[in-house]
Amino acid sequence: MDFDLSEEQRLLKESIERLLIDAYDFEQRKKYMKEKGGWSKDIWGRLARQGLLGLPFAEADGGFGAGAVETMIVMEGLGRALVLEPYLATVVIGGGFLRHGGSAAQKAAHIPSIVEGSKTFAFAQLEKSSRYDLHDVTASAERKSDGWVLNGRKFVVINGENADRLVVTARTRGAPRAKTGIGVFLVPGSAIGISKKAYQTQDGLHAADITFAGVEVGSDAAIGDPEDALQLIERVVDEARTALCAEAVGAMDESLKTTVEYLKTREQFGVAIGSFQSLQHRAADMFVALEQARSMSMFATMAADFDDPAERAKAVAAAKMQIGRSGKFIGQQAIQLHGGIGMTMEAKIGHYFKRLTVIENTFGDAEHHLRRVSGGVV
Question: Are 182 and 172 in contact (CB under 8 A)?
């Protein structure tokens, strides 16, 4: 199988690298963190003008008809620069629900706004006791004559503070852990009945805990079947996991490069510490872990074309498991090889480790996905 990028894909990779080298170094990132919502509207606009926000959408919907490989390339680039902008929440997840389950009217109403950068999304899924179970949903959506009424609470909604649209999972019928009776609803971020508690997460992103109290939406707010949307949710979340794997590879790659550069310049006893054989071996182990993660990220990306949903899910779970293990190892080694400076806010290496740690715990950690691969979790 040919793993080389096509000419168009190489150009995409180079264009992302040029943009981020020019506009997203570590000091600039600190400034973007202080903007409203915790990310730069100017950078978001530049991503839109380069066509990156429209990559996965069909040409008929105003996009560029790109595939999973292009998303992988973008996410790796964003991971290298520790980009704060809500690409995952808006393009991968919000856009994923529209691409796979949205009606023609929903696509026409929202996809062009995503592509041009005027609208962002957030995925309100996590609940207080649901952990990694996508079917554990207690938030409710009750039918009303002309639509739905939503009640419940969602936690750690990334970009939830300022998102124009919330993609909300809610139960339309059945017990809290039943795998049927779950719907997905598009809700305006400023709808009456919504209250938010916003905060910054450990990795520098912004999230919100959101309460829905009698929030009314129209009948056209449901994406797909409002009583049987779990399969749609699982598909989109697996695509998000695959994107996170690619982002983690980018972060790990940059962590290794930063650490090797530090070993070459930091001196002890009058010589660079990179000349110590034991530290060279540790850097070599980091490289092996990175390449293991990279190969599994590619595997998950290829799994997007698998016809069997169960096989696709297992491939993504295997990748997420390896990504979690490699990210933890590389992050820990990078901090230890930097010494005390690696624990400070001024050193970027610690920020990479924080992001890798959050990625591992987003949509399932390594142990959760080990159980999925082994058959313990369906």
Answer: yes
Angle (CA) 361 161 146, round 5°: 105
- Please check whether residues 299 and 345 belong to one and the same domain: yes
What distance in Å separates the CA atoms of residue 334 and residue 253, rounded to the nearest whole number?
Answer: 11
**311 touches 281 (CB < 8 A):** no
In this prediction, residue 274 has a pLDDT band, given cuts at 50, 70 and 90, of confident
Of 204, 227, 250, which residue sits at a domain end? 227
1 belongs to a structural domain: no
Rounded CA-CA distance 286/263 in Å is 13
Q: How many residues does the chain have?
A: 378
Q: Identify the bridge partners of residue 123 per DSSP, sorted by sequence position.
A: 167
First-residue to last-residue Cα distance in the chain: 29
- Residues 169, 131, single domain; the answer is yes
**Using CA atoms, how far apart are residues 127 and 221, in angstroms rounded to an integer?**
21
Give the pairing type, strands 165-171 and 147-158: unpaired
- Cβ contacts of 72 within 8 Å, gap of 6 or more: 242, 243, 246, 297, 298, 301
pLDDT 10s digits, 97-148 = 999 999 999 999 999 999 999 999 999 999 999 999 999 999 999 999 889 9
Q: Work out the percent of the chain whose per-residue pLDDT is above 90.
A: 89
Long-range Cβ pairs for the range 103-108 (8 Å, 24+): 103/220, 103/223, 105/220, 106/186, 106/220, 106/223, 107/61, 108/61
Please report how the helices 230-265 and 277-302 are oriented relative to each other, as an axis angle in degrees rounded to 10: 160
Q: Taking Cα atoms as reference points, which of 348, 312, 187 lies closest to residue 238?
A: 312
Residue holding tokens 């930063």? 258
Residue 187 domain boundaries: 123-227
Distance between CA 166 and CA 124 in Å, rounded?
Answer: 6
The one-character DSSP state at 89 is: I
* Position 136, amino acid: D
Do both 153 and 27 map to the same domain?
A: no
Tokens describing residue 53: 């926000």
User: What would the two tokens of residue 197 be?
Assistant: 């508690």
Residue type at position 276: F
pLDDT at residue 376, rounded to an integer: 64
